[in-house]
Amino acid sequence: MKPTRRMFQALLGLTALGVPASIWPALQAPWQMLGGALLLAAGADALLARRRPALRAERSMAGVLPVGAWHDVRLTLHNEGKAALQLDVFDDYPAAWELEGMPHAAQLAPGAFSSMTYRVRPLERGDGEFGTPWLRVAGPLGLWQATHRIGPQQTAKVFPDVARLLGQALRATDRQAPTAGSLLKRQRGEGTDFRQLREYRRGDSLRSIDWKATARHRKPISREYQLERDQQVVFLLDTGRRMLARDGDTSHFDHALYAVLTLAFVAGKQGDAVGLMSFGVDKRWLAPAKGRIGLDRMLAGVYDLQPGEAAPDYMRAANDLLNRLNRRAFVVLVTNVRDEDDVALRQAVDLLSSRHLVLCASLRERALDAASSAPVQGFEDALRLAASEHYLQQRQDAIRRLGLRSGHLVDVAPEQLAGALLNRYLDIKESGAL
Question: Counting CB atoms within 10 angstroms of each CB, which of 331, 347, 357, 361 has the fewest?
């Protein structure tokens, strides 16, 4: 219960009337009667305000929201009683989200309704829980307000903003590799699956010439190839404490997840089946599937995936993945390499490489690169530079001890991961290594 402004005004007026009543005794009895009436009115109003009002609340919003964008939520209140209502409304939105447009005041005549729209902005992926709205309803006399909770509870699924991130990744890849300007449809003559015979064109490799067809047609004839299809791309995604690192507003894990989803989209368009297994804190398995089904299943399976404080167990993850995959696949291991990982990670990569083609992707902290390139202006700057250089050298030694060829290792800043994985995937597809 909360007193309203009208209650304070009534008390202030009663106090003001008490001054002349204290001077002229004849006014004391009327003043006391007025105070008693106010007390009775306040008590009755409090009792009536505590009764549950005949209100019905409805919330209208999208069930799936992209992270980081503003979204409208509409709250509609229906007065199904016979008395007018004056109330303040505050919706129970997820505490970690940003909000604009609340609280809201409304007056409802009997049988009327009122709609109010406010905006929310989810800041992280996962399930956003909307509780029952809070309503502060004034009593019939407007002296007290009582708090009630009326309306539905809802859950909104917050997915990565795939459209925005995919566009950025494709543009970045296009800038880095001009020959990869058409990611979903590669240039003619590339790949390992035979497509057709055609006349020789300037720029074709001599190895692509079909000499039998050339002799038969008495002019140079080339074989045209396309990228192999019907392959498996499986992501092995670390959810351990290493992925909690953050450069700016986005964590390393979110950068990794967006890169995985981007490559899954491209691989699906190329006709490959995409799957994922996470290890570390949250262990999930999404079997490889082709086309739109594969991408939808992956989005639904990882939208709420989050890293935690546990250390990653690379050998256990490698054994689990080997037990789940029955055919050769392109395995993309996404983690953050440290110098203490050299033995365990090397053994896991060797184990996976015995049956699959493995690409190891590691995220490099931008803060360390910035510290190593910052100017030295004092003793503390020199210590910071020496420590960062020592750490980066140890990390580079650990990566070198993995024994992976340069084409099977990606070590980039988080925001560059998506483009690097896309280019490496297309290079491997063209080379026929799978």
Answer: 347
